[in-house]
Structure formats: structure tokens, C-alpha cells
Amino acid sequence: MRVKILASTVPLLLAGVVAGGELVPSPSPCIAMGRASMQIATAPWQNPLHVSFTDDPETATVRVQVVDAADMADFTVTDGTMTAEADSCTVTRDTTFVSISDRHVADTDPVIYLSRDPGADYRVFVQSRVFSTKDAAALVVGAGARVRVAERVM
After folding, report:
1. How buried is residue 51: exposed, middle or buried, by Cβ count under 10 Å (0-12/13-18/19+)?
2. For a disulfide at 97, which of 19, 41, 83, 154, Cβ 3.0-4.6 Å?
3. If you average pLDDT over residues 95-113, what whole number do you get?
4. pTM, two decimal places
5. CA pair distance 115, 82, nearest whole angstrom
6. Dihedral, CA atoms, 118, 119, 120, 122, nearest 10 degrees?
7. What are residue 30's phi and psi, to 5 degrees?
8. pLDDT tens per residue, range 29-38
């Protein structure tokens, strides 16, 4: 009986891993926004907002400047800082997911141009082992898109 149960669960676990899930969930880049949170999508069923990146500033819809100091940034990510809101990035019904696409998916999806040039829509500072600069840019642009949508609804 035990062998039959084990034999039936192993293929299900493997199917879940192949489909984009994880056996042991690892923390994915996340930011808290009040009671809601925004996370980098790790599974295809999370229905994320898609963002893409470009090297051509003319095709970008959003510009993000990478700055060298935290006090110059609109959004700062550093590792090793303990916060009172350690569980603020748990997945709830208010969680929004962002997916970084290799190509531009839809005309309404943001296309991000990362640079060190001033005059950007957002400025980010990243010093992290968990977040990449692209993760931080995707989250801050996604959060900005979410705020603009919420303002239109009100």
C-alpha cells in the first residue's frame, strides 16, 4: 500500500516542478505596498503583469535610472536589513505578480530602458544577492502601473 501511494505521488511532484512550481518555495523578489504586495512571478498560473526590457531608449515606455547611492533613489533594495514587516510579502488575494518577458507581449505592457542617465521615470539602487537590477526595475514599474490603474478606477 505504501509503495502504491509513493508511486502515485512522485509523478505528481515531478509534474508540478516541470510546470514551474518548486518543491521548497524560495523567496522571490517582492515589495510591500500597504496591505498588498508585488512579487516576481515564478509560476505560469500567477497571471502576471508582463514587462520587458530594451536597449533602445526610443522603444521604451518607461525609463529607469540605476543610481550609485541609496539617497538618490526612489526605490532602494539592500540585503541584510531586518524590518518589522518580515511577513509583508506573503501571497494574499491582494498580491500582484510581475513577469519579466524576453519579448514585448502586448502593447499595453511596459517596456523598460535601464540606464545611468538622468531624467528617468524612476531611480533604483540595488545592492542585493536576491534582487537583480532588472527585478527591482520590474517591481517598481509594476507598482507604478498598479497605482495608475487604481487611480483610474476611483
Report:
1. buried
2. 41
3. 84
4. 0.71
5. 29
6. 90
7. -150, 150
8. 777 777 777 8
